[in-house]
Each structure stands twice: as C-alpha cells, then as structure tokens.
Amino acid sequence: MVSTPDPADLPTGAVRVTDARALRVLAHPLRASLLGALRLDGPSTATRLADRLGESSGATSYHLRQLAAHGFVEELPAQGNGRDRWWRAQHRRTSWDTADLIGDPAGRELVDEVLHRQLSQQRRWLAAHATEMEGLSEQWRTATSLSDWAVRLSPTAARELADELNEVVRRWQETREEPDQPAVTVLVDLFPLQEHPL
Q: pTM for the complete prediction?
C-alpha cells in the first residue's frame, strides 16, 4: 500500500488541453499511469514509479520527459542527484473540450482513444473496489456509494448538469479534502444511450 503523501507535495489546479499534440501525450497508457501516480501519491523518481507500475526505469524516465515537454510534469532538481531525478505533477486535473480537438484530423481519433483508455481505467477501479469491498470497515462500507440515474435531458441541459456535478467535486477537492484520509475515487459519467441494456 502506498503511504499518504504530504499535502504540500500534491499538485493543485487544472490544465486544459486544447490541441491534439498534448492529448496524444496523454493517450499513451504508461504516461497516463505515471501522471496519475504523481497526482495521487506526490513526487517520485522514475525508478520508484517503475517499481510501482511494473515497468523499466528507462521506460518511465523516457515517458516522464515526454510529459514534461508538454507541461504535465516537472523535474524537482533540488530533490534529485545525478542518478535519481525527482518528478512531480504540475496540475491536479486535466480537462478538454471535444469541440476544441475534433477540428484537427487526428483529434477525433485521439479523443476516442483517450475515452476508451478512461473507460478501461474506470473498469479497473470498479473491479478493484469489488475485490477490496469485503475487507472494508463497516464505516467505509456504508460511506461507499455506487449510484446510477436516468434523467431525460437535452444536450444543453446535460452539459449544464455535468458542469454542475464536476463543480461540486472540484469544490470538495479544494475545500473539504482531508489529507490524512485515503483517496476516494469519484466517477462522474453522463452519457446518452439509445437503448438501456437491462
């Protein structure tokens, strides 16, 4: 289990991706995992990240440099030495508007690729929760919520609802977070289906 990071070491704020080149950096699964680990656990070295993710330190080092080239992570020279370079995430969240990216010929394909990667990650999180649920304390078992709703909305109203829900989570992250507690995964998904699988 990863230790609780010092809150001062965790990134704040958000970065908005507006071009396909930056999104391509995030589409790579290892880069996405590296960025996620740095955001969740705080600064680390390529070697420590390689151990955590089951990769070689050469691979993690290369992909950290790619993330740094696009402003997602930064090196912490004061913490490192010639062999161990320390890295940290520059932002807590990444967002993009699909409309900003689909005008680029590669943009639509990248948006689809990142979407499928995100869905795969969400499936892994939910599967991990299902596996770990048995070992949760009664307090955590009753605090956990897996909810789904069906609401009939126009695209404009759906966007407004998504923005409002995301704003609530952002506000809690910035004002109500308890650094000594475990990270709680919050999934906010809003999508239409032609027919709901039953």
A: 0.80
